[in-house]
Design goal:
With 202 residues, the protein is an alpha+beta fold. Helix content is 30%, strand content 27%.
């Protein structure tokens, strides 16, 4: 997702029309409202994931909160593993969904940032790859990390702006993308276990 604190609105580049499908004037109004009342800046997201058999899961999204206001919405995300990893290959696996979320977040940042600078995009494509060593998450070798050793992404773009403007947009997007930040910077992740016995929480 794209952060309202992108900062480009401070340049005063306000366009009344839509660029890349983005309502630039509406975006700048949002920025000004947040500047005048920082309580509006808080975004909260929540997902609920349930096991549906074998390696398949379904995640339900039913709302989010922005500025303390609850907004109802409903989506379902399905995940599974390939057959080689004991799944039925009925849906993308968690790593593919993770990379999809990274790409989507960066794409939104690109589209919005370009619009704020008056740049019309013709093409925008992001390819991301990652490699894992299964010995880590299978517990075969404790010296091997369970996750990706590295993630590499390539953004391919065409638009009506000089190269230096496109490079500046790219640097700004990576600097302010929430998902890029979450994957490239250590953040606190906590977890707890709740045990059910005969349908009763212990």
């Amino acid at each position: 997702m794209f952060s309202p604190s992108l900062g480009l609105a401070a340049t005063g580049e306000v366009r009344a029309d839509r660029t890349n499908g983005i309502n630039v004037a509406g975006f700048n109004r949002l920025v000004e409202r947040i500047r005048s009342d920082t309580a509006r800046a808080k975004l909260c997201f929540k997902v609920n994931t349930r096991w549906t058999g074998q390696t398949r899961s379904e995640t339900v999204i039913d709302h989010y909160e922005i500025g303390g206001e609850k907004i109802d919405r409903r989506f379902k995300i399905v995940a599974d593993e390939p057959r080689a990893l004991m799944g039925q290959d009925s849906a993308p696996n968690p790593q593919e969904l993770l990379m999809s979320a990274l790409n989507s977040c960066i794409l939104i940042g690109w589209v919005t940032s370009a619009a704020l600078k008056g740049v019309t995009l013709e093409t925008l494509f992001i390819e991301t790859d990652a490699e894992l060593d299964m010995r880590g998450f299978m517990g075969i070798d404790e010296r091997v990390k369970p996750g990706c050793q590295s993630i590499h992404l390539t953004v391919t773009v065409a638009g009506d702006a000089p190269d230096e403007v496109l490079y500046a947009i790219h640097e700004g997007v990576l600097a302010r993308s929430p998902n890029y930040f979450d994957l490239s910077t250590p953040i606190a992740v906590s977890g707890r276990l709740e045990i059910l016995r005969h349908g009763i929480m212990l």
